Amino acid sequence: MSFQDALYTLEVGKGRRWVQLAAILVGFVFLALLYFVMLFRGLDRPTAMDHAQLARQLATGNGFNTMVIRPSALKVYSDFYSTPAMMAHTPQPKIDVFALPDITNAPVYPAVLSVVFRTFKVDFEPTATELGKAQIYAPERLIVFFNQFCIFLTAVVLYFWAWRMFDDRVAFVSTLAFVGCDLIWQFALSGLSTSWILLLMTMLGFVLHESLIAEEEDRQPAVWGWAAGSAVLLVVIILSKLSLAWLIFPYAALLLIALRRMVFPPLVALLIVLLGITPWFVRNYQVCGNPFGTGIAKVAEFGTVKEAIGDRTFLQNNNWPVKRALHKTYEGFGHALGNFFSLMGSSAVILLALAAFMHRFKRHRVQLMRWFLLGSGLAVVLGASLLRAEPGAVDEENNLILIFPGLAAVGTAFFYVLLDRLDIGLQIVRYIVVTFFLVVCTVPLVIALLPPGPGQYRYPPYFPPMIRYISQLLGPKELMVSDIPAATAWYGGRVSLWMPTTLKEFYQINDTIQWASGMLITPESWDNSLYKIDKGNSQDWAPILRRQGLPSGFPLTSYTPMPPLDNEYLFFSDRRRW
User: Fold this and answer.
1) Are the C-beta atoms of 310 and 297 separated by less than 8 Å?
2) Whole-prediction pTM value?
3) I need a labelling partner for 24 at 20 to 30 A (CA). Which of 17, 132, 210, 511 fits?
4) Strands (DSSP E) along 42-194, which ranges?
């Protein structure tokens, strides 16, 4: 091959795609390192720490047993152990909080993280001094790097998906718009499962589109293969986040409509999905008597994100809260509609994607994929609404971001439809217009990287060295009570009970299930107005939060204020340990 032939191949031939991918790779690596160095100061999401401690449990051979003890989970177990069948099998069944199977989280993401931990042989047991010098808990770096790797793979899959739906122009620009979305990077740093599920959702979109192409070309074996592959991906997605089970409905609708000439592939795919997710619900039923675990408590939960008490309530009724579910669904869809732009990363490409629903694309399969994305958006909002009606942008229940890659491809395609209609003759002018479009898409990312950056720690309320020090004052078989139980479990390595809503619930758990040896109160509880402390969800704890003394009969009689800053942590113990 001559030099001219090679140059032609790289510029307009088959090699052009690999040049574009190489450019995306270089830009991605630079941006990933820059974002990590400038903005990552440790995990600050309780759910991320919860997943991390479960992954550590799996990596260290302790099974899917949680160190974060929710009063709602204890209620589920307590009801299960008091049934006649359990009483007949075990005369005096006792809940062992130190080996309690988790019935709240989906299993796949913690399992994947555990593989990462085992592969890199991470040290989970630094001293408080070592953790203070390192500033960042070593396993958290691995979590963030893994999430960033998932984002990179998502970009690659998106490129080929957009190329197969449209062309290489749309593939390249939509991938750059995706990589330039600030919210995508915030999720990577959050440690939440969103980056992992984003990869799976993009793969699902690609595989479903390939099944549509195979159906158009009447390649029946390929249709079977792609349909089965999509079913496996959907199983992994649901077992990564159980609230995404509602995706079964748009998934089934797409297969039944698009593959209507072939009856069996859609039915077999749906059967694979149902058979794939059923064992997890059976497992939950076997360990706690409820296939949904603490799901009912989450649906019944009320209050803001910070004040929500569903998981903190031990005396709740575990019947289905139908009226509350309907109310949260109404609130959730209203919140998603009113905050759609921010929940999707405030990227300009999303506005074009919405406008693209008014445009009729020539390819029927593109039309189908567009409506599948709409159906998926409705499904994920429904699933999130039942758990948290009003999630923030960087929130484990912001499921809308999961359809961002597909919408980025559709929005970019519509951008090129508009650009082509302008009939701009000069290529340099077209490049300027495309560049300006990408700059507009990346404005939030640029603003996020501008100084000043975050502080040294995610405080308040998380100060890992002191959390580690206080938690290690207790033994491995002693129970810690905390308003940040995910942090004391993750950083401190101690089984931690989420501070119950009322003192009555605390006394009942302490007297009948497991006595508490220590309690850590942080600004997470008392950093509120006096009205919220005295009249809010935790009003029973007001004397402690206002540092006015201990309630009568309180078992943790020794207490001391501790750093950081102006002794803003309060530690209570059954005896003097410091």
Assistant:
1) yes
2) 0.93
3) 210
4) 65-66, 68-69, 100-101
Task: Give the type of residue at 162.
Answer: A
Instruction: Name residues whose C-beta falls within 8 Å of residue 234's C-beta, 6 or more positions apart in sequence.
Output: 204, 247, 248, 251, 273
What angle is formed at CA 277 by the lines to CA 276 and CA 279, rounded to 5 degrees?
90
Sign of CA dihedral 225, 231, 232, 233: positive
Stretches in the chain below the pLDDT threshold 70: 1-15, 85-93, 300-309, 315-321, 389, 527-538
Phi, psi of 497 (to 5 degrees): -90, 130
Where does 260-309 have alpha helices with state H? 264-288, 295-300
Q: How far apart are CA 470 and CA 569, in angstroms?
A: 10
- pLDDT tens digit sequence for 48-103: 999 999 999 999 999 999 999 999 999 999 989 887 766 666 666 689 999 999 99
Residue recorded with tokens 């206080």: 470
Cis ω before 460 (30° cut-off from 0) = yes
Q: Per DSSP, what are the bridge partners of residue 560?
A: 571
Dump strand ranges (E) for 49-116.
65-66, 68-69, 100-101
Six token digits for residue 141: 């770096």
Gap between the Cα atoms of 309 and 307, Å rounded: 6
Whole-number Å distance between alpha carbons of 315 and 379: 31
What is the phi/psi pair of residue 468, to 5°? -65, -45
The CA distances from residue 520 to 27, 306, 442, 516, in Å, are 44, 17, 41, 11
Half-sphere exposure of 350 (CA within 13 A, CB side): 22
Note whether 251 and 368 are within 8 A (CB).
no
Query: How many Å apart are CA 193 and CA 239, to the nearest integer?
Result: 11
> In degrees to the nearest 10, what's the CA dihedral of 499, 505, 510, 513?
-110
* DSSP strands (E only) in 68-206: 68-69, 100-101
CA distances from 237 to 23, 115, 122 (A): 30, 18, 27
Cβ-proximal residues to 166 (8 Å cutoff; 6+ apart), any chain: 366, 409, 412, 413, 416
Instruction: With H, G, I as helix, E, B as strand and everything else as coil, classify residue 140.
Output: helix
Which residues partner with 561 through β-bridges?
Answer: 570
For residues 327 and 408, what is the distance between their CA atoms, to the nearest angstrom?
A: 31
Query: Across-strand partners of 496?
Result: 68, 480
Among all chains, which residue has been given the structure tokens 């300027």?
Answer: 432
Q: How far apart are CA 517 and CA 376, in angstroms?
A: 47
Per-residue model confidence as pLDDT tens digits over 300-323 = 665 444 445 678 888 665 566 677
DSSP 99: G
Those residues with Cβ within 8 angstroms of residue 389's Cβ, 6 or more apart along the chain or in another chain: 327, 328, 331, 332, 335
C-alpha dist (Å) from residue 147 to 136, 346, 361: 16, 21, 34
